[in-house]
Amino acid sequence: MTTDFAGIKGRFTPPGFCLPRQPAVYELTVRLVLTSREPFRSQVLQLYEGQPLRLHREADNEHDCQAIRVETLSGCVVGYLPADIAAWLSILLDHYADLTDQSFAECILSAAPPGDPAARRLRYPKLKLRLRLALASAWPLFAIAAVLGLKTDNFASRFNLAGNPWLAPLGDLHEQYRQAGHDRFELPDNLVRAWKYLTE
Question: Terminus-to-terminus CA distance in the chain, angstroms?
Answer without folding.
Answer: 34
